[in-house]
């Protein structure tokens, strides 16, 4: 695959004008034919907790924190939007920097690892998801995919990229440390591959991922997936149901 700079007539996205949480100057807020979730949302990112200027905050609260290297993030990602009952931005973070526990990094033996995989496979089957196919390396290095997701977030397309990326990893069995599979996921969000490749090494994207991870740690996120409500954090796939109950109780009390 060529990684040459875009030539005349190429529809590459203008990386020089990218900034976290905002679309590029000549980039549409919503992907063509994409996901407009109504007034008050940023792209497909389900912006929540409004800022003083009325613009939805691209990091909540609430917020859904995830990392592609974590299979439970995949389980949560497939249902979080329809389950928790409130809009919540998707925030990719580097889970290797979180205080833990890091379940998928530290199995005592192969039988424990096999049992964990079987549990995820069973849950996926019960929910009618695609049969799981595991990447050769688990957990894999998700750095490239996280950077691509942050670039997509700056364009309002983080969900449009992230769901296909999760499915590449856990329904296709593809390692997202490989550029090709990150680019396939980006193509589902109608993002130009050369622009995505350029974004992977750019300081604003790298810094945005690092800063979001720092904020997640400050907010009490210990592992992924996690849902931050503003004053509480619910961890794991089961945390999606706990967060849904929390938001339902808060709505009933208001």
Topology diagram in text:
Layout: E1 48-50, E2 56-57, E3 63-66, H1 71-77, H2 80-83, E4 90-92, H3 110-126, H4 143-154, H5 158-170, H6 179-188, H7 193-199, H8 203-218, E5 226-228, E6 233-235, H9 238-253
Parallel strand pairs: 3-4
Antiparallel strand pairs: 1-2, 3-5, 5-6
Helix pairs in contact: 1-5, 4-5, 4-8, 5-6
Detailed description of the structure:
By secondary structure, this protein is α+β, with helices and mostly antiparallel strands. It is built from nine helices and six strands, in the order E-E-E-H-H-E-H-H-H-H-H-H-E-E-H. The strands form two sheets. A four-stranded mixed β-sheet has the order 4-3-5-6, sandwiched between helices. A two-stranded antiparallel sheet has the order 1-2. 41% of the residues are buried.
How does CATH name the architecture? Answer: 3-Layer(aba) Sandwich
Total helices: the number is 9
Distance between the termini: 54 Å
How would you state the average pLDDT, rounded? 82
User: Based on helices, strands and strand pairing, what is the structural class?
Assistant: alpha+beta
Helix and strand element order: EEEHHEHHHHHHEEH
Helical percent range?
40-55%
**The CATH C-level class name:** Alpha Beta
Unreliable spans are 1-42
Oligomer: single chain
Biggest sheet architecture: 4 strands, mixed
CATH topology descriptor = Glutaredoxin
Cα-based radius of gyration, to the nearest Å: 18 Å
* Tally of discrete structural domains: 1
Number of strands: 6
CATH superfamily membership: Glutaredoxin
Q: Biggest sheet, strands in spatial order?
A: 4-3-5-6
Overall geometry: globular
Q: Determine the strand fraction and express it as a percent band.
A: 5-15%
